[in-house]
Design a protein that fits this description.
alpha/beta
Length: 132
């Protein structure tokens, strides 16, 4: 009798611990994205962002597009120092030497395309395109 009661209690305990199936997802309404839809990503090519990472001896993204009045922030994630400097003479970008973790900001007030480089590593080049 003891064995029967223990077996019955064990079966009852197992039954109580058995997980029930998850509830069904609610039906989706026409025109609404499903909950499982992945987030949309920006189009390939020029990125529209106000942040540029300096990593692996490159500016990422290398081509940035922003609206007039936008402040762009460059952050050095490399172990080596870098600069953000306009190519040619008279350009607006003139950062100090940025050590690891340091940032430089510039607010673009004029539409146009601004090319820049790292004066320490001149092979590092990129552009910011400013739209009206």
């Amino acid at each position: 009798m003891k064995h029967f009661l223990l077996a019955g209690a064990a079966a009852l305990a197992l039954t109580a611990c058995t997980a029930s199936p998850p509830p069904a997802a609610p039906p989706s309404m026409p025109g609404m994205p499903s909950a499982a839809a992945p987030p949309s990503s920006p189009p390939a090519g020029n990125a529209t962002t106000n942040t540029v990472a300096i990593k692996d001896f490159a500016f990422a993204p290398a081509a940035t597009t922003v609206k007039k009045g936008t402040t762009v922030t460059w952050t050095n994630s490399d172990q080596d120092p870098h600069t953000v400097t306009s190519t040619g003479s008279g350009g607006p970008l003139r950062s100090p030497t940025l050590q690891t973790g340091q940032s430089y900001q510039y607010t673009f007030s004029t539409p146009g395309t601004f090319e820049y480089l790292c004066t320490i590593h001149p092979f590092m080049t990129a552009t910011v395109t400013v739209t009206p």
